[in-house]
Amino acid sequence: MSTVKTEDGHFHHAHHFKNLNHQYDSAKQGVWLFMVTEILMFGGLFVAYLIYKSLYAPIFHVGSTYLDVKMGSINTVVLITSSFTMALGIYFNQKNKPKQAVIALVLTILCALTFMVIKYFEYSHKIHLGLVPGKYFNNPEFQQKVADFINAMPIENLTPAISDINNMKKIAPLYFGFYFVMTGLHGFHVVIGALLILWVTIKTARGQFGSEYYTPVEGVGLFWHIVDLIWIYLFPLLYLVG
Amino acid sequence: MDLVIQYGLYGIAYACIFVPFFGFGLGPPVVIGAALGSFIGNTYSLIAQQGILKNFIKDKKETGSGGPILPLLEGAQKAIDGFENPGSAMKVEAHHEEEHNHDSEKHHIIPIPVYVGVLLVLLLGTVITVAVAQVDFGAMNTVIAMLVATIKASFVLAFFMHLKYDNLMNRVIFGSGFFFLMLLIAFSAADIFTRASVIKAF
Amino acid sequence: MAHATQSTTIVTSTEDNYLNHEKGIWSWLSTVDHKRIAVMYLISILTFFLVGGIFALLLRGALFNSGENKFWSYITPEVYNQFMSYHGIIMVFMVIVPGIPAVFGNFLLPVMLGAKDVAFPRLNLASYYIYLLGATIAGSTLFLGKIDTGWTFYTPYSIKTSTSVIMAVLGAFTMGMASILTGLNFIVTTHKLRAPGQTMNKIPLFVWAIYATSIIQILATPVLGITLLLLGAERALGVGIFDPNLGGDPVLFQHFFWFYSHPAVYIMVLPAMGIVSELISTFSRKTIFGYTAIAYSSLAIAAVSFLVWGHHMFVSGQSEFAGIMFSVITMLVGVPTAIKLFNWISTMYKGSVRLDAPMLYAIGFLFLFTIGGLTGVWLAATGMDVHFHDTYFVVAHFHYVMVGGTLMAFTGGIFFWFPKFFGKMTNDTLGRISWVFIFTGFNVTFFPQFILGAMGMPRRYFEYHPAYEPLNQISTVGSWLIGFGFLVALAAIIHGLVAGQKASANPWGSKTLEWQAPSPPPHDNFPITPTVTAGPYEYR
Question: DSSP code of C288?
Fold first, then answer.
């Protein structure tokens, strides 16, 4: 390990840095750079989503009615709270209070687990109904609802693409393709985040951090906040703006 | 010479980005506006952060050639100082002590009440998002939802992620990521939504 | 500036250096020393280059005959597509994109900055293993279903083909991850670990080049990541985003793919330009002309490279408006490149030019990259591109810039920094001979391809019209010359390792900081952290 607490209780920085602060600033900058890559990766998904939503609005409108706004809202509240407890976890480490820090971090993990449980219910419900991406899709009622919606649209709003009702019925599963890929990738990051938080929780519990050195907690915190940020955008786009 | 090249390259970059969007009619004014804006912003940051005005005032004072305009410049510098660093007088002394003990340089710690406040703002924002979504604004639905989401995101970034109190480089890094994402959206959309139109002439 | 060098104390004893600091294979595999990691990358990259080169020779051998009877009956049209895809995937993802940053960036960046190591040494080692993992995953497709989509994985074919697309894109994704982590490391190193006195205006141009490259790596590679993930999801789940049958848009795949892949070609070329700056300045014994212009043009190229990706898609069904937009901006990206070229030539003017092997490679770069770059501008014009797209003209263009450009600079860099890496000199005559074969062979191989493309021969074709045969045969003979040239270069390297003369700290008389450290450098690069008082090219 490059930064280890020695017997006298002090932290030593890695030899190529000038001091602990130099190491801390550098590590933080590195984590921010990595966060930029996460934003661009999810951003690509958002770009694709926004483009198809503009092209095939009826599919996305009808599709979003199949999402449970209540569960989505609860998940939003859960993630926001977990961001709060994560910030507290860092705060208590900064103040040299490992016991409170562990509590805050454990609460964060519990929030993450709650999120995944709610997500599990959402997914299993949809899989049960056959509302899954293209190859395995099996829910003619959804396709019919899309057709009904288009038929009810005023004629001046119809683009050539949307007017082809048979085609729109065929490609309707596109919505659930997006839903599962976007929330699935996000959920994957929630799991990774929870594991990382578990790692720093264990290290905090073992007294390996202090006000001089808590960089991993802060780094994991930044990652967790990005996961929250992505959900802040994902929730309205998928669940609300139908 | 450096500055000439710098602004030259800015100019090229702006032209590349703005002319395709605003066309050859509106494009050049936008480019000039952006160039002027960045020149002004650049100058302000040179004054505020690198103290070129301070040095200029000092030079003039030492050689005694300030003239009547010097008090005006000093006033301007004070105003900028006050705007940039409220309570800066106290900070100057504290900074001298800290210079010697880099290892014990205290990181800025955000107090818990601030965190609680941000949490409440975010929860309120969620309520607003869901409530507003019940009303149909037509095409503006997405825009409004994104706006609320962005405000919530700014709070997470500024306080939970500490960007408000962090050094400039981390903000630049985040901002540039976001900027390039906007590029991807803009140019892909520019293709997809102009597919139908055939350009007959300019 | 009054001072002549970037000064430090030179340790005369070279007994303890990074090569013998610790012994044993495990000390290498678990090292966090950036210099050892660079050497490990070098071995991997040269190996992959050999494999990709063999595929190239097989391709050109197959193209010797216009009909379907090839020199080896195993090569059917399907097999040809596989060879073509592997040549591309190996050369792009395993050799050229990591290439110069992984080898020279890793070794030299900290030394040129006066630092003891990169910012995150363990992350550096992790990057190397992630790279190997990605290469293994992609390479495993050779033993599974192979791949025949071309390195560009265009939909809808990549969705429908029965080859191992998912494994291939997983491998490419993993190698992209390694690329991101390396870029991240370099940016933080350049920001945070410069020696005292070394402002951004005193760092060598090679560092500027690597810095600009790292910015591109951070911003562009994630989009490739999501594109490949979506392709995998499309194949596995039928998501429908790129498949027209399911409502998708294949052109959107191309938008996403080229958003990364165009900046990627600048990841390939910018470090090469950095090396050329170092070589030309050293071997002309003259301060580089226009340091600031070259530094900022690196950043400008990095920024503008993100605005031009649609020039790969002029005939794909993209809208006319988008085509015009991308065409105009693409022509603008030639401007910073031209600035660099004029500055290099001005550096050589009235300099004291020595034509050692590295300098030959640098001059070769100037000549070949100019041709490649200019033909790129022709391709940027939509009217011309309608005729040239997917012909051998494009193939010749990108080989001129990637091989004639990057690979020339890479090889020149190897001969230049060989003494620093290994403490021995290469045989300069062998180096020059290798250059003659590579330079001549390269032109013999690829110049006819410009003509073939203008005559209309399509690329990636197994069989072609007999009228194209003579030029194809010339091209194939050229490929043998290149192959021989690289074998001579390899012989020069091996000879240098085994029987090379012991090298002093600064055999070429260069002024940048890495030449003030012993050859090879000690484990910590410098005995004491140097203080930089002068610019990096103060020759007079």
Answer: P
